[in-house]
C-alpha cells in the first residue's frame, strides 16, 4: 500500500467510543465502536481498522448520530453531527486499547 493511501486511512478513525454500551458490545460480540469521519465508507473503515490494529474485520455497521440541541445561556445552539461505526472482528482477533 502506498504512503498516501495509508495516511488517508489513518485519518478515517477519529477515536474509539468508550461507553457502557460499547464496552458490553466489545465483551459479548467482539464489536468495537469508533467515531469516524462523516464521509468515510464501510470499506475505508474496514481497511483503516485492519491497518492500524493488525486484525481481520468481519463486518462494519455505520450510523449517523444527530447533534443535540443545547442551550448556552440565552442562545440556542446545536452540537455537531457525527458518524459512528460498529466494527465486528473475526474469531481469534482482539483489540487491546490499553496497549495501543
From TrEMBL:
The keyword Nucleus does not apply. Pfam families: Ribosomal_L23. GO terms for molecular function: rRNA binding; structural constituent of ribosome. GO terms for cellular component: ribonucleoprotein complex; ribosome. Coiled coil: none annotated. Keywords: Ribonucleoprotein, Ribosomal protein, RNA-binding, rRNA-binding. One of its GO terms (biological process) is translation. The keyword Nucleotide-binding does not apply. It comes from the Bacteria. InterPro entries: Nucleotide-bd_a/b_plait_sf, Ribosomal_uL23-like, Ribosomal_uL23/eL15/eS24_sf. Belongs to the universal ribosomal protein uL23 family. One of the early assembly proteins it binds 23S rRNA. One of the proteins that surrounds the polypeptide exit tunnel on the outside of the ribosome. Forms the main docking site for trigger factor binding to the ribosome. HAMAP family: Ribosomal_uL23_B. Part of the 50S ribosomal subunit. Contacts protein L29, and trigger factor when it is bound to the ribosome. This is Large ribosomal subunit protein uL23. It comes from Methylotuvimicrobium alcaliphilum (strain DSM 19304 / NCIMB 14124 / VKM B-2133 / 20Z) (Methylomicrobium alcaliphilum).
